[in-house]
Amino acid sequence: MPVRFCTGILKTDKLYTSADFLSYVANKLPPAHMAKRKPKLDTVDWKRIFHIKNLLLTLSGCSLAVLAMRGFLIPNKFLDGGITGISILIYKLYHINISILSIVLNIPFIYMGYRRIGKTFAVQTSIAVVLLAIGLFFVHIPPVTEDKLLIAFFGGLIMGTGVGLVLRTGGVVDGAEVVAVFTRRKTGFSNSEIILMFNAVIFAVAAFHFGLETAMYSLITYFAATRTADYVVDGIEQYTAINIISAKQDEIKDYLVNELNKGITVYKGERGYLPGSFDIKTDADIIVTVVTRLEVHNIQNAIRSIDPKAFVYVQSIKEAAGGILKPRAHGH
């Protein structure tokens, strides 16, 4: 299918998890003809690690994670997924110091990340894990509330915000995210499916020891944390693809390119095939442009003013790079 102009590299997917991001980083390896060059993964980017912005994000993220765990999750036996959930589970069952657990349980996953993703990732994750452990050791917060629904929702919200802030620096506060990156090619499952199976075991054990109700509230916590982390990482400027099929295709192209300065991709297709007139069809250009989520509403309104009958559908973008994309407020 011919393409006139491409905005860049697109990967469409409605679910974007932190493991998806790690997978993207892990797979940005040099091509075969560049094999003799020393890959960047072999060196630690100390400038990036100790950049004031990344240090503040890591410190803030770990502080919020400590608040969520000490003030909401641990006192009520509510679990998040990954190493955080395992640490709380073991701490409640065997009373082993949770700071020690958070470090020891993360070590194998940090090593896996070092081998698969790179040294910079391993160092950033190590710093985050150590800061979390220190916070859990020294900070003791009385339970913020006794309402289970509030605990589940706001505990997950605060935890997800902390995880997302750390993820924006290029590391993670919970090494279990690396499992999906490390095993995806070997198992054939997607990142989300691997993480789901990993956490399903944790919640099943929680249901057995703490009761089904606690496990169900923990699922709310996990869902709130996951969605919040995704939002913090992507922000309100997440890339979105707008697909347009219109009889006034030239006017819409002119508007997108000349008025909004957007890049467009044009696919050749056909429109028609309607019930009652299946044999009627015409050639059509399928116009695709990638914008930030903030711009979607205004562009949709403009398209409706040009052609009220235009068929428009919007897709979430897992990753986009290259072309003339508008830069977002942050990079990760």
Would you kindly provide a written description of the structure presented here, covering whatever features stand out?
With 332 residues, the protein is α+β, with helices and mostly antiparallel strands. It has two domains: 43-234, no CATH class; 239-321, 2-Layer Sandwich (Alpha-Beta Plaits), CATH 3.30.70.120. 57% of the residues lie in helices and 14% in strands. It contains twelve helices and five strands. It has a five-stranded antiparallel β-sheet. The longest helix is centred in the first third of the chain and has 25 residues, at 52-76. The radius of gyration is 23 Å and the shape is elongated.
Question: Could you give the topology of this structure?
Answer:
Elements: E1 9-12, H1 18-26, H2 46-49, H3 52-76, H4 82-94, H5 98-116, H6 119-138, H7 148-167, H8 177-187, H9 191-210, H10 212-234, E2 239-245, H11 249-259, E3 265-274, E4 277-292, H12 293-306, E5 311-321
Antiparallel strand pairs: 1-5, 2-4, 2-5, 3-4
Helix pairs in contact: 1-8, 3-6, 3-7, 4-5, 4-9, 5-6, 5-8, 7-10, 8-9, 9-10
Helix coverage percent: 55-70%
Largest sheet: 5 strands, antiparallel
Please tell me the total number of domains: 2
Low-confidence stretches: 1-16, 28-41
Radius of gyration: 23 Å
Sheet/helix structural class: alpha+beta
Give the termini distance in whole angstroms: 32 Å
Topology, number of strands: 5
> How large is the share of residues in beta strands?
5-15%
